[in-house]
Amino acid sequence: MTVSRLGFGSWAVAGTGWRFGWGPTDDAESVATIRHAVESGVNWIDTAAVYGLGHAEEIVGKAVAGLPEADRPLLFTKAGLVWDDTDPQAPPRRCMRPASVRREVEDSLRRLGVERIDLYQVHWPDTGTPIATAGSAAGGVSPDATPLEEYWQVMADLKAEGKVRAIGLSNHSVEQLDAAERVAHVDAIQPPFSAVHRSAAPEIAWARAHGTGVIAYSPLVSGLLTGTFSADRVAALPADDWRRSHPDFTSGLAANLRVADALRPIAARHGASVAEVALAWVLAWPGITGAIVGARRPAQVDGWIGASALTLTPADLDEIAAAAARTGSGPVRP
């Protein structure tokens, strides 16, 4: 698959009524935003069954349904987080039992309205435990957890059967990637990676060495590196926006905003947005295939779409490295 450097992420258009929503959304506007991204050159969409408890996949399905086959973007989705329909506010649970995965893939195919998923990913390693906060899970592993070798074989079987075109792992360590590779080739990985969160650098290096694609998620730290956030804006987020209680937006907010501020003079020199500079930094990293970027309105897409054409200079990278060194962990320069 040949993919554009930027892909559309659908978590933010998943709607309300579940534990990790981003506040109210308008479905018609979400469809228009996805189509605008595709018209602007984005040729893949990343989603997950758990986003909106199926709603994001339905929105993506609506957005691509009317497009000519030649213009239809590639569709990437994920399995492994299951929820209780009777209690949508309960935290989803990590589960990769073979029967559950097979049920999930059929549900995703139906919601997306396609016969084959282009990239099917394991959202998190199976621990059998609930997600505690967005982007993490409760500690410990349940005795009911499915071994990685077992669930990765199921993913390989789905590929062999033609249900999916490629298979990937999200949020898995180098050791887990090694174990999976012994079962079947890891076509792609999806780690979090940004100028703030850089700890996935070893996984990216692993992928580069194994001929594995890398699509980075949260390259803008859920909006914090767009240059449009402030403490006042965080305080004004809707009550049901998961970001209100996340450490990136509470205890880490001041440090994260300082990184965004450091990108402003670089953006001014290039006639670009702060978001485009933040994304160009991620795309400059060796081994990165593309980055997932969300939007809820077409104008937001216009604010980051130019990143794939932006080349940062050595001086730019030095400035960003100096700012990044003051927060997070991991290497600060490509």
TrEMBL record:
Transmembrane annotation, as ranges: none
Keyword Nucleotide-binding in annotation: no
GO cellular component, one term: cytosol
Gene Ontology molecular-function annotations: oxidoreductase activity
Keywords, comma-separated and alphabetical: Oxidoreductase
Superkingdom, taxonomy of origin: Bacteria
SUPFAM superfamilies (alphabetical): NAD(P)-linked oxidoreductase
Domain NADP-dependent oxidoreductase: 5-323
InterPro entries hit by this protein: AKR_Detox_Biosynth, NAD(P)_OxRdtase_dom_sf, NADP_OxRdtase_dom
UniProt keyword Oxidoreductase present: yes
Name of the protein in question: Aldo/keto reductase
CDD domains attached to this UniProt entry: AKR_unchar
